[in-house]
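Figure 6 in text form: structure in, sequence out.
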């Protein structure tokens, strides 16, 4: 087996993994690349089947400069491993949440941007923010996802409800962007009787008063199941919303497997067809995240009931095909199944084991 080494200004090649590590430790190999912080670091990508992460740590830790070790570790996680996490509680603070992600052997997370059933939110002290940032970069987290509260309905025709939703989306874009969170997802909303077109118009206006040209965070429209008067049931509805905003480059899509299955997109028997339809209507580059959930309810039910991975109507085989599909495998996946963090850790471990068994 081998490691692929990219040397800026020199050459690209494959050499034996243990030989590579030995030469790095003895200082006989030199190369540089720029990481996100601009530091010059040695760069290598380790093929997953060569060494486990624990073996890499045992070989490298305390024998190579810490920056080089952490860069290699981040690259191993980001390139060679599945980017997967779960919806996490932030009751103990955002730094503690990041620690819990590491403990459950995940490498990303989703959090609520504020109280999901109310309007309150917590302001973090700079010391806690710094600790959070240290953990996420030290352990190579993939893109993080914040979820707007369920009380936010940008499609509503009720004046007070709509004004509240506009305030929430505006504040939460700014707050989550300040934390360096890459994506903020929200349910487009329910029109509650004013009609789909009027509801879409409200969503567009709500986004236009909140989304700015200078923000780094991307706002994601979530695919919905179609219960009641929900908007976002079809890819076409999501396209209408995005096409109407002033800064469409700041708006993407989060695909929820339970929701699209309930909405009538057959990801079990025709995943390729569903993705082709998404690409035709919206374009696959707009897909930025996946909520990985099984469904308690049958195909086309228009009912949003998440089930534990592999126990519902979608099933383990279909969910594994989603995780490994060429168009999806590099995206971040977030579990929203009906478990606490211990249960989510077990699901993540189970998924990795299943993938390992199937990929040989």
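Output sequence:
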């Amino acid at each position: 087996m081998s490691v692929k080494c990219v040397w800026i200004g020199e050459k690209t090649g494959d050499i034996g993994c243990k030989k590579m590590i030995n030469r790095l430790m003895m200082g006989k190999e030199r190369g540089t690349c720029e990481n996100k912080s601009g530091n010059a670091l040695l760069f290598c990508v380790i093929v997953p089947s060569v060494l486990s992460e624990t073996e890499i740590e045992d070989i490298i830790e305390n024998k190579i400069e810490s920056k080089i070790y952490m860069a290699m570790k981040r690259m191993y996680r980001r390139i060679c491993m599945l980017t997967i996490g779960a919806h996490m509680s932030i009751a103990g603070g955002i730094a503690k949440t990041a620690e819990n992600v590491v403990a459950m052997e995940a490498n990303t997370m989703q959090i609520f941007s504020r109280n999901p059933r109310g309007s309150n939110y917590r302001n973090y002290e700079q010391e806690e923010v710094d600790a959070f940032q240290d953990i996420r970069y030290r352990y190579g987290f993939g893109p993080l996802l914040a979820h707007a509260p369920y009380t936010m309905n940008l499609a509503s025709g009720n004046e007070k409800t709509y004004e509240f939703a506009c305030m929430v989306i505006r504040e939460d874009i700014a707050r989550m962007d300040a934390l360096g969170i890459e994506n903020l997802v929200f349910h487009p909303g329910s029109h509650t009787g004013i009609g789909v077109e009027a509801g879409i118009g409200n969503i567009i206006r709500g986004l236009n008063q909140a989304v700015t040209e200078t923000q780094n965070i991307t706002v994601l429209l979530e695919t919905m199941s179609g219960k009641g008067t929900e908007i976002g049931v079809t890819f076409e509805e999501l396209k209408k919303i995005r096409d109407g905003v002033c800064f469409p480059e700041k708006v993407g899509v989060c695909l929820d497997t339970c929701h699209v299955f309930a909405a009538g997109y057959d990801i079990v028997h025709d995943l390729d067809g569903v993705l082709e339809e998404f690409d035709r209507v919206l374009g696959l580059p707009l897909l930025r995240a996946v909520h990985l959930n099984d469904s308690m309810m049958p195909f086309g039910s228009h009912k949003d009931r998440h089930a534990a991975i592999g126990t519902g109507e979608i099933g383990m085989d279909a969910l594994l095909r989603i995780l490994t599909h060429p168009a999806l495998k590099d995206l971040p996946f977030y579990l929203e199944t009906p478990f606490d963090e211990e249960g989510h850790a077990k699901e993540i471990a189970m998924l990795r084991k299943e993938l390992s068994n199937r990929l040989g």
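Caption detail: The first strand starts at residue 2 and ends at 6.
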